[in-house]
Structures are given as C-alpha cells and as structure tokens.
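R.M. (postdoc): so does anyone remember the format we settled on? I'll just put the structure tokens first.
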C-alpha cells in the first residue's frame, strides 16, 4: 500500500492541455471513449524515448481473487497466433526489443488484471515498421485471442501458472513484514472485500481448472470495462484508430462494479497475536483515518501520514526507534481509496505493550496539536519532490490517472502541488482528530508450549 500520487485531469481528445498541467509543462491525458466498453487515455509527450501502453480490466476484489490473479499469467503464455512464450519473445524482438508483462493490481476493493508493453518511440525507428500498430495488435492478441484447447485454456499453461501462483501465495508466510501487514488487514477488514489477498488462497488456486478459468475469462471480457493508457511521443487520434480496430469486444454487455466500502471510524480497538519460529517480532497497526481519496482534506492526511510514520524524520521513527530504541524499523503507509493507514515495526515481542503505548501517545499528541512547523516544512519539501518526480516516470503517470479513475475523481498535478503548498498545521490537526486505531497484529516468536501472556490492550480478544 504505497503512498499514492496526485492525479492528472482527464480531457476529451482534441482538447488542449488543461491549464494546471500546462503551467508545469506537463500535458493532460486525453480521453477517447471507444466502442465495446474501451476507454483510451493518452498523454502525448516527447519527454520519453519509449512509449508505454497499459491495458487494464476493472474487476471487483472478491473471494475469486485467485482466478483473477491467475488469468493474466495464463494469457501471456500463448495465443492463437503465437503458440507459446518462445514465439511471443521472438515477435517482441522483431518489434525493436519491445517488452511485455502482465499481473494484477489492487486499488481499494478493485483487483485489476493489467497488461503492459513498452517499445521505442515510433518516431525513432523506420516508419515502414508500423511499430505502433504492431504493438497494439500484439497486446490485443494476448488479451482477446487466447490459445484454446478442448473448450478451455491450454492445460499445460494453467497447471504451470497455478504452480507459480501457489508458490507465490505460500511465500507470503516467509515474508514476515508483508505477512504481518496482510494479517492485520484481514482482521481489521473482516467482512469487507478489502480483506482478500490480491493473489487469493492456495485452496482456491488448487481448485481452478482450464475450463473454469476460460469461462471466467469470457465473462470478464464481455462484461467489465477496459481502460487503455498510453504515455509517449504519439498522436491520440492515431492510437485511438488502432485501439478501436484491435480491441473490439463483440457482445459487450456491461455489469456495474461495486464501490470500495468506506468505514469512517473504528468501532473498537482489537488486538491479535500469532506465533512463528522467528527471532524478531513484527507489529502491524491499522487505523481508520476518516478520509478517503475524493475528500477535500486528503492532502492534509498525506501530511499526517508523513509526519506520523511515512518519512525518516517521522514521530514513529524518532520516538520508537531512535529515542526509545524499541524498533528495528518503523514506518507507515496510506491506502487512500479505502481510507486506512497501516503502521509497521520490527520489535522484540517483550516490548509490545510499551510500543503500543508509544504509538497511542503519538496519535493522541498529534490530535492535540503536537505538530511543529519544522515537521510541516520537512513533509512539504519531501511531498513536493515526490509529486514533481512523477513527471519523469511513465508508469507513475499512468498509476496517477488510474487511481483517479477508480475513485472517479481526477485531480490535476499542478493543483496537488498547490494544495501541498497551502496545507497548514491546523489542517493536519483537524485530520488527526479523526484518525482512530482499529487493529493491532503481532507476529511473535514461539516461546514454548504455553507462550507468553496474551493480554489484549483495548479489551478485544485475539485468536
């Protein structure tokens, strides 16, 4: 759950760059609605020597996550025209060494398969290569013309990628930092779709068959919206023509997607423990912030997170690690679509109660106004640098716009920078008063048959 970036405004194709982006030399994404539920978003810029195109299918996060996660891995194994990955690789080499990848992305309670292709700017290669059209055709081939066997996906592809997916899911338990964070989210968001892990479960993955996955795929491409993003030295009109031809979806019948559930505040504080044969405990603490992506005080929340635990000068780092010496690491992150903040630390399990006392103290003191001008200006400088740097990354620019699309709230980069410049201590204190601790999860070392005392700060029981 990385701290998100600002969102570029989206205009209609043929419109000029929006005024805010033009002020900082960054054009706006142009938007073209195409037939079959395909929306094209193009940022025309000569800043880069390559073109990056990313196609995203929007899907609700659910207990079907394993199926969603497996799909892009299977699709990239082979198509009707390219029998296997070797043939696909040879074709990419012929496209001036183009690269191609696919995975899933979790934003709020959406789990979206995406397909990403990067290739040299067509202006830099032989025009007769027709590189833009070839690249678009390849992406459409992978996404819409899979290789089929006996009425389903190729069994070899599905079984091989299932094994990879299961291995990836199982590896979470040995990545203790991410495991503690995920378990905290599962307990905190019990009964909410956000609790589902983006790669699903081993049990669900094992049950997937080639036929079932193909049926799911057919339903997905026939009913769910598709967004295609492109950043580079290209013409939006020309790209729209190519996308319109290649990404035709016959029989498209849209099904509405669900909004991310927003819970404004924590009803009670809960604590959970789990033991593993590890040496260093991992503590993850989840908070309901009372603020979500489209709220006007989102920028103040971003400041709050930075001062609380997001930056090296943060209170969490300085107090828990540097002053008290109780943490091996300490930090915090926001999930802005869901409106939650997650703090993570590596500690000795024996210091759990003291660390929780310090965390509560930081939350309380910030709500009481303990935020200095020095902390504000340090956060402002780092946020300005972070948001300005997005213009240097095609992936970051696309992610900015994609986050806005999910939240149906596009914000211009220049406006975000202006908001960062205008946030006051009072704004951050106002947000701080709405941040409430919800769930603490401690992954601790095994200490014997009975284990250490399982006291429950806040009065809520763990497992």
């Amino acid at each position: 759950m990385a701290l998100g970036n600002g969102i570029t405004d989206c205009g209609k194709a043929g419109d000029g760059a929006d005024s805010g982006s033009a002020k900082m030399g960054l054009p706006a994404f142009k938007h073209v609605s195409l037939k079959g539920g395909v929306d094209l978003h193009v940022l025309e810029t000569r800043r880069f020597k390559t073109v990056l195109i990313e196609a995203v299918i929007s899907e609700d996060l659910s207990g079907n996550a394993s199926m969603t996660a497996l799909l892009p891995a299977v699709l990239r194994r082979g198509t009707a025209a390219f029998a296997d990955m070797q043939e696909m690789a040879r074709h990419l080499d012929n496209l001036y060494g183009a690269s191609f990848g696919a995975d899933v992305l979790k934003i709020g309670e959406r789990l979206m398969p995406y397909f990403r292709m990067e290739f040299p700017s067509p202006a830099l290669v032989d025009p007769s290569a027709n590189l833009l059209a070839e690249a678009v055709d390849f992406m459409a081939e992978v996404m819409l013309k899979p290789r089929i066997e006996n009425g389903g996906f190729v069994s070899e592809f599905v079984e091989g990628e299932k094994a990879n997916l299961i291995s990836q899911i199982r590896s979470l338990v040995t990545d203790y930092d991410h495991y503690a964070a995920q378990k905290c989210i599962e307990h905190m968001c019990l009964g909410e779709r956000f609790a589902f892990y983006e790669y699903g479960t081993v049990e669900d993955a094992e049950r997937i068959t080639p036929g079932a996955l193909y049926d799911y795929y057919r339903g997905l491409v026939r009913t769910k919206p598709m967004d295609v993003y492109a950043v580079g030295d290209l013409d939006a009109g020309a790209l729209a023509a190519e996308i319109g031809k290649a990404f035709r979806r016959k029989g498209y019948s849209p099904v509405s997607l669900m909004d991310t559930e927003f819970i404004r505040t924590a009803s009670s504080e809960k604590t959970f423990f789990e033991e593993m044969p590890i040496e260093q405990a991992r503590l993850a603490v989840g908070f309901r912030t009372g603020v979500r992506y489209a709220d006007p005080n989102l920028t103040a929340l971003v400041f709050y997170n930075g001062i609380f635990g997001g930056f090296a000068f943060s209170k969490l780092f300085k107090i828990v690690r540097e002053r008290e010496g109780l943490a091996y690491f300490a930090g915090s992150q926001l999930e802005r679509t869901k409106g939650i903040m997650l703090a993570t630390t590596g500690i000795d399990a024996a210091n759990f109660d003291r660390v929780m006392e310090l965390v509560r103290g930081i939350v309380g003191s910030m709500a009481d106004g303990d935020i200095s001008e020095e902390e504000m200006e340090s956060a402002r400088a780092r946020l300005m640098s972070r948001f300005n740097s997005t213009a240097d990354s095609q992936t970051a620019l696309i992610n900015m716009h994609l986050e806005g699309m999910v939240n149906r709230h596009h914000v211009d980069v220049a406006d975000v920078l202006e908001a960062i410049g205008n946030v006051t201590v009072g704004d951050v204190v106002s947000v701080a008063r709405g941040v409430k601790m919800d769930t603490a999860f401690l992954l601790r070392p095994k200490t014997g048959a009975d284990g250490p005392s399982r006291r429950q700060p806040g009065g809520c029981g763990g497992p």
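R.M.: ...and that's the designed sequence above, right after the tokens. Also worth knowing: The two ends are 25 Å apart (CA to CA). Residues 1-23, 449-463 have pLDDT under 50 and may be disordered.
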